[in-house]
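quick one if you have a minute, typing this from the bus. theres a chain ive been looking at and ive put its sequence and its fold in token form underneath. please have a look and point out which stretches look like helix strand or loop to you. anything you notice is useful, everything is just below.

***
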Amino acid sequence: MMNKIYKVGLLITYNLLLITSLHSQQKQIQYLSGTDAKNTVQWDFFCTAGRNSGEWKKIQVPSCWEQQGFGNYNYGRDYKTHGKNFRFYDEKGMYKYQFKIPAAWKGKQINIVFDGSMTDTEVKINGKSAGDIHRGAFYRFKYDVTSLLNFDKANTLEVTVSKMSSDASVNNAERLADYWVFGGIFRPVFLEATPKQYIDYVGIDAKHDGKFAMQVWTKGLAQNAFVITTITDANKKVISTTKTAVAKTDENIIVSTQVNNIKSWTSETPNLYTATVVLQDAAGKKLYELNEKFGFRTIEVKHGQGIYINGTQVKMKGVNRHCFWPETARSLSKENELTDALLLKEMNMNAVRCSHYPPDKYFLQLCDSLGIYVLNELAGWQKFYSAKAGEPLVKELVLRDLNHPSIIFWDNGNEGGTNKELDDDFLKWDFQKRPVIHPHHRPGNHFSGIDGNHYEDYYSTQKILNDSLIYMPTEMLHAQDDGGGGAAMEDFWNLHWKSQKSGGVFIWVMADEAVMRTDLNNALDANGLNANDGILGPHREKEGSFYALREIFSPIQLSLSDQLPSTFNGEIELENRFHFLNTNQCTFYWALVDYSKPFDRFDGYVVKQKGQAPAPTVSPLQKGKLKINLPADYKSYDALVIVAKDNYGRDLYKWISKVKDNASLLQNFVTGKKDSTSIKETDSLYTITGGEVSVVLDKLTGNLVTSKNTANDYVLSFNNGPVLVKGNAAVVSSKAYKEENNQVVEFTYSGNMRYVKWKINASGWTTMEYEYSVEGDQPFTGVSFNYPENYVLSSRWLGKGPARQWKNRIAGTPVNVWQNIYNNTHTGYSPIVYPEFKGYYGEVSWMELSTVQGKLYIASPDTGLFIRLFDFYALSDAVKPHPEVPVGNISFLDCIPPIGTKLAVGLTTNTRVYGPMSELNHVKGSKKRTLYFYFGMPKTTDSKENYSRPAIDNVFAPIP
């Protein structure tokens, strides 16, 4: 871990970062480049083709040269268009840099190390070759340059990087792929110095029962020696010391011991230890020392049963992840890496597949410390490396990463990009002998007892899980646009969770891979529909699937509905879906809250009472009850909020359940007066007036024509409804009459609509009661109106949010007061604003639409109301955007459609293959509903409700 950063503005410099040990017996590091995408060093650079080519300029290292304004952009699939002419993209980048070597390094062995360079890399020091050209972009490689260096003057480093490889199999495996391809030295470059007698590397195999074995590879021994191994815990307490003899002729030795009272490593308990390994001569003089972090854990694949960590079956809740950031492409900062790791944990995931190449080492260190299972992958996107090209790359992959406890599997390529001749190479270099798997998209390519077949539907998944193999799809529910991801996952995950033979799931993919095009005024480009596949936006904006997955994958599951039952006694059914933790290691908080009101100036809720519930004792994978001791007057509050935190104090999920029903929440909302109302009737229109509001209705169609608020001088173009979104209706008769203090107009219909009853009270609040009957399998039912979309500014509502919903993606949207500014986000392209404004929103009690014409208020005392806002892009095929949307553009619905994925046959027309929740709505019988409208700004005298916005996001951090 780097502990000092020195920026030096000289041409000849010790460069950006110099780590020197207080003890010369340790490896010493001197960075020639920067340490990451945020901390870079400027080198001289010459690009052979494309932008800014043909002359020497400056470039930041590490970086992808396209993002520095050089060369050409290309997406891997471009080769399908250009065919044999794909070499058009074969730019070369020539780098130069000067550096000095510390005098103290004389007599040491010095290597130059590249952590990642795309793709073929030729290295020279002082005009002399450092070694053979390295082929392969994503791997750490090094050269011994001891004999090439000057100690009395500056050294010149020259590096030539070819974007395309001279080895066709390297291009096939990692360049001709379904992702953006780049050129350049995109990970750090550094020098490392060691004594002549040193330890090259160690391979640690530490089991969860405390058995510790370590393979130690020594170099340059001039005499017999000893290896002293000291194991310390996170508090630096020594828990084991072992002394092992090593002969100067030994290529490697095995250190073994039994360590007692250890804490094992899992995703839920990521306990790390440090092995300090000292090479010592016979007289006790220290020759060399290295420190390696590791964890005690055991991996087993029990054929036909499951994947076991430390003797317990686990199921992967995972996602595929590219190393990518829009501004810097494959070159990442430490902050980028940490952001991704924390987002994985926030989604309650416990696993990540490194697609389709090994990640930065820092990301693996984060997975070790935070607790994330890793599938570490050899590149190979549907085509594979030859054995000649692949063997050294497997070695580089494994030797860099072999001691990370987070790595559970090695992936040999992707979807046909598996060279089976390389399977045994992983085991050759991995002292732990981790399982090797074959991620694939065709049946019959299983390996190590694991079938990883991609993109099965719900029913074929059932079939595979009833077969003989462990099933762990390494890609599923492709999340292009707003499809897949969290949509249908509730059904899929319950299927996997309940199956003995499931190894878990990995969704495609974590984030949209939209690059910031430096040749297109910094616009984001996802290459059409190719790269907007994320659960998150390109800058990790949270899309709808993020929220759904967080609830679905929560290891604490509460059977808490959106509406608290009237008979609630404080007990809530709880399921513990942790693999290792008892719920008594978690903490549970509750709060009774009042929602902000329609005319308040803040969103969310105000906490009125709060407390901590006793954590129940429920073993992993078992069920029990959470008991909350609520005050006697709890029914006087709007909602109950419960938060569960894990053993590290991290929020797992927040559940919100309404205590009051909609009618109670809307009490005093639709206010009435005893003043008179009026009605005006002509041959074609009814005009009903209450207070400052007038509503005009068409006698022939029964539709709203217009509304006006004289107090605010509002004329709202909300009209052309109610129109049935499914079925047909024609006005048969109408009548106008007075009902108590309300003016009423009632229409009766033929067809699927039975009646619509409009009434207005003296305050101007307008009620619309209606009943319709539709039968069969329907994507949606209800009524629609029209409103000019370009007039809308924002929405604010009490209902599900913050993200829009689908029938098969309701999870992750608790009932609260939310607000959203109008946007027309198209996933993966600028401008990107999440959550999307347009879509379906469920369990709406009230909604306020702000427009350039004024305010429109909508409410319902009934449950189950969905409001659809406008037409929107959700999922595309070659014909038209899907799915079908209702007529009109603002709809009041009793059911909404599911969403599919781009890989479903017929897209959303065949969503039923994704399980019960993805079927159309099975509609039967009639439906009655009441809607309230106010056209304009209602008058309110309840100034007590105009709170300043509280810090609602931190309500539970901390709670006394």
